[in-house]
Design goal:
The complex is a heterodimer of chains A (79) and B (455). Chain A is mainly α. Chain A contains two helices and no strands. Chain A has a domain of 33 residues. Chain A is 37% helix and 0% strand. Chain B is globular, with a radius of gyration of 20 Å. Classes of the chains: A mainly alpha (79), B alpha/beta (455).
Chain lengths: 79, 455
């Protein structure tokens, strides 16, 4: 997902990750019915989660990731 | 309550089976006794959502006929079993502890129910759970309380399954575990709870929370009973070493997960854990600390996978009936609905990193030990998004992320005289051996089931 154009030209052109408040705003615009206190709570929760996700050690391998078979050494445990 | 009812409530599944075959006890008498115990004990516990009395009596009568003819179907013939209320039984409502599924009566059995019926087991009923197994009590359903102290929670999300087993209302139960939902209530209630290797037990007919994290597992008061239930509902291991001979705890290579001995551990739980570890070392096991640095990130990865997958399942209801969820469940579903795909996929890819590190550690150890939870049963179930909620699942989440089998076994008592759990994990596919190790530990510890209430 990219963020709004920071130049003020409108549209969605600039490849900037949306901030947590922007994501929540988009969700509201898309029709997600949030309780008023949830709308206030959600942005900081998401922000914290995304900040923590930045610290996840990256998987540099070419493997696609977990596919749900722990017996397959490329996705889980030993055969 | 009659002495017979008390005695029957304390019997294990294997003891019941032995007495059935000796014509010393009949399945119908056991069902009647357990129904009476539920009637008398469950009020303050709230473990049961639906009790299938008539169906259980019919199944017990059919079982008696087979046993009388000398043709029992196996170790579970005539044994009452409870099911978490996210597991479908044809003709019996499934509520998932929520208002959302009100009126839903499935028309087919879940795979595990098919297998239980084939094994001759008696489905006694459906048990209370946190709403959609997602960490919160729905007010319509109410909290399931701990049989050992009814002012405390039984834990979750397989709350009723653990409480019913601990209270001697049923000898065995099935639950589901997506981040600790079998092992945590097992620890709080002082029983045994197994989360098997991923996909060792079919999920078909079990309402999903998070399809790449969900595990169907077993709860009981003895490791042998849990093994019988695993054998009945599971598939054989595709791994090579599930039935490797075991000579007690001697010669085992035991790793203590250093990352799980953090400052959040309550002193009583730490003491119980240290005493449990001493049982292994006194028995001749080789015990050493192991470090799994990637596990420090497991909690974040777990939320990043769980939240979007759960929200994908619930999106239509979240849009159309958001008011029918408990507020905290709704908030978690909303969080998952706005979590970016890139973050979800990064966490999915990270699971390979954790699996690789763990696989390397299992080159040097046979099992990993950690406390199941850092504290004893709190008064109420902590919300997943709360600080206590995050700590509650800290030591059980990694195993779900990588599909590793893990069992919580009793480790004596800790703060307020409540049970503490010891978590034992072994390599993928070695679930039967893991339960053998759990049985050997329990025998060495001299532990037996905590006396259920009313005895």
């Amino acid at each position: 997902m990219t963020g709004p154009d920071d130049t003020g030209a409108g549209g969605i052109r600039v490849a900037r990750p949306l901030s947590a408040p922007e994501i929540v705003q988009f969700a509201l615009l898309a029709g997600l019915d949030l309780l008023p206190d949830h709308a206030a709570a959600l942005a900081p929760m998401l922000e914290e989660l995304l900040r923590a996700s930045e610290l996840l050690p990256a998987n540099q391998s070419a493997e696609a990731g977990w596919l749900g078979d722990p017996y397959d050494p490329s996705t889980g445990g030993p055969p | 309550m009659s002495a017979d009812s008390d005695e029957i409530g304390l019997l294990s599944a294997s003891e019941l089976s032995t007495r059935y075959r000796a014509r010393d006890l009949r399945p119908i008498d056991v069902v009647d006794s357990l129904l009476a115990r539920i009637e008398q004990l469950d009020g303050p516990i709230n473990a049961w959502v639906t009790v299938c009395g008539d169906e259980a009596k019919a199944a017990a009568t059919a079982s008696l006929e087979r046993i009388s003819q000398g043709k029992p179907r196996g170790a579970l013939d005539g044994i009452p079993v409870a099911l978490k209320d996210n597991i479908d039984v044809a003709g019996v409502r499934t509520t998932c502890g929520s208002r959302i599924l009100k009126g839903y009566v499935p028309t087919r059995d879940a795979d595990v129910v098919v297998r239980l019926k084939e094994a001759g087991a008696v489905i006694l009923g459906k048990t209370n759970m946190l709403e959609f197994a997602y960490g919160n009590v729905h007010p319509d359903v109410g909290q399931c309380n701990n049989p050992g102290m009814t002012t405390r929670t039984a834990g979750g999300s397989s709350s009723g399954s653990a409480a019913a087993v601990a209270a001697g209302m049923v000898p065995l139960a099935l639950g589901t575990d997506t981040g600790g939902s079998i092992r945590i209530p097992a620890a709080y209630c002082g029983i045994i709870g197994l989360k098997p290797t991923f996909d060792r037990v079919s999920h078909r007919g079990v309402f999903p929370l998070s399809w790449s994290l969900d595990h169907v597992g077993q709860l009981g008061r003895t490791a042998d009973d849990v093994l019988s239930l695993l054998d009945a509902v599971g598939i054989p291991s595709r791994g090579p070493s599930d039935d490797r001979p075991l000579s007690g705890l001697r010669d085992l290579r035991v790793g203590i997960v250093r990352q799980h001995l953090g400052p959040d551990l309550r002193p009583g739980v730490r003491g119980a854990f240290d005493r449990a570890v001493a049982i292994f070392s006194d028995a001749g096991a080789e015990v050493a600390d192991v470090s799994l640095p990637t596990w420090e990130h497991a909690d974040v990865a777990h939320v990043l996978v769980l939240a979007p997958e759960a929200s994908a399942v619930h999106l239509d209801w979240l849009r159309g009936r958001p008011q029918d969820y408990a507020p905290d469940t709704r908030l978690q579903l909303e969080l998952g609905a706005v979590t970016p795909a890139a973050a979800y996929l990064k966490a999915q890819r990270f699971r390979n990193v954790i699996a690789a590190e763990t696989r390397a550690v299992f080159g040097g150890v046979d099992i990993l030990l950690s406390p199941t939870v850092g504290f004893v049963a709190p008064e109420t179930d902590p919300a997943m998004g709360s600080e206590l909620g995050a700590l509650e699942g800290l030591r059980t989440g990694p195993h779900c992320l990588i599909g590793l089998p893990a069992v919580s076994v009793p480790a004596g008592t800790a703060e307020d005289g409540l049970p503490a759990g010891l978590q034992i994990a072994s390599a993928w596919g070695t679930d039967r051996r893991l339960l053998g190790i759990a049985a050997a530990y329990l025998a060495s510890a001299g532990w037996r089931a905590l006396a259920p209430p009313g005895t």
